[in-house]
Write a structure and sequence with these properties.
Order of helices and strands: HHHHHH
Oligomer: single chain
Number of strands: 0
Helix content: 55-70%
Number of helices: 6
Structural class: mainly alpha
Length: 127
């Protein structure tokens, strides 16, 4: 009986702890952005969009709005597992991150964009 009470008490403590927030990996975001996002943008009339082309606030607003291609698509679509599966044959980064949860990959990209923003810790270009 004492073991049951101890087990229940331990379970209650664990359940009361706050969930761990995902600690974004800006390096993984950089790989995906440079390999997937930049490669597509270079092929389009828009051309490459460097992280340093916007401020942190501008990137945050863009990511929050979740609109891509002038509102024709959602940004989340280009980070989704189905999208990665559709391009993985021709894109090693999409293949490498095929099983990465969408939300984590989006947070990784956000971390890279904010770090590399015009007013970020390490303004970056994608050349």
């Amino acid at each position: 009986m004492k073991t049951l009470h101890t087990l229940l008490a331990a379970t209650a403590i664990v359940l009361s702890l706050p969930a761990q927030a995902y600690d974004a990996d800006w390096k993984r975001g950089r790989i995906y952005y440079r390999s997937v996002c930049t490669s597509c943008h270079v092929a389009m009339p828009v051309g490459s969009i460097n992280p340093s082309s916007k401020t942190q606030a501008e990137w945050a607003a863009y990511l929050q709005a979740d609109k891509h291609a002038k509102g024709k698509d959602t940004l989340k679509h280009y980070v989704s597992k189905p999208y990665r599966a559709s391009i993985k044959a021709g894109n090693k980064a999409a293949e490498k991150f095929a099983d990465t949860p969408d939300a984590e990959l989006l947070e990784d990209i956000k971390a890279f964009l904010l770090k590399g923003a015009k007013d970020g810790d390490a303004p970056a270009s994608c050349s």
